[in-house]
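Hello forum,

I keep getting stuck at the same step: I have a sequence, I want structure tokens, and every attempt I make locally crashes halfway through. Rather than fight my setup again tonight, could one of you with a working pipeline run this one for me? It's a single chain of 297 residues.
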Amino acid sequence: MSLNILWVSMEMRKCLEPQRDICTRTRPLFTTATHRQQIPTSRCERNEYAQVQSNWTPMPPPTVQGSSRSNSNNWENNKRRNNEQRKTIPKLVYLHNPWKYILTRLNLWKLRIFWDHKFKEQEFIRGSRQAVIVMTDIIRNQSTGKLGQFTTPVGFQQISRDMLLSRNDSRLRLVKFDTEHIRKAIPMKVATRKNFGRRYCFIDMLFVGLRNTKDFDSPEELVEINEILRKLDTDMRTPMDVMAVPHRIVFAEIFMRFRRDYTPNSDNASNNVKDREWSVSFYKILTFDVLNYDPKP
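Reply #2:
Ran it on my machine without issues. Output:
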């Protein structure tokens, strides 16, 4: 009986010893600079090690993708906010004379019905916006050689004379408009004329341009604009509290007259129309000013 008890005790001891070794001799499963992974040799240790390995899932390494994406979004938001701020302009409400508005609409309808079935008002206004930008750039840069491409003979003489008179006016350097800066393009008058057997149509347009003096991309333009503004403020003795406003707005009203020859072709080739496109017969800057604008008074 005692031998059986001794044999059982020894068997239990054999089974308990590996468990005690696992509990007392465990080593880290990750190899580091100070620890090395211990590979178990006994069967019980191998089973325990396999179970631990099967239940272990590696932790993903830390990532900064969310942080970089957040920084990118913040940068884009700041850039968009800065662009909106430098393009800030006051709201423009332009009141048209009701009678003149109705008369202009009627004459545009008569032009489309009786003179030009292909005439489209929106296309004409879109083209006139581009024309006012081209003409303003030509006058500001004193490019007389390019003037004849877009004007009638009468318009060439009038604009050339005005260019000579205004070439020393520094305010003209501030009139730098793109298509987005032409806030209003209003047909003011439509007239048809028949002179010496020729048929002409005239359309008078009024353009309203607004541009923030901060709305320039190149540093050279910003330096030039700020220098001109400084000279204007000195000449006009602008008060300091007015100069301290966050936004200076360039405001200009430009009047242009467009002419098109609708004379039909005849047997006499010398009287035929060579250019049936719209040309500029008159150009004038009616109003110019630098407005001081504070969106948060």
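The chain is about 45% helix and 20% strand. If your local run keeps crashing, start a new thread with the error log.
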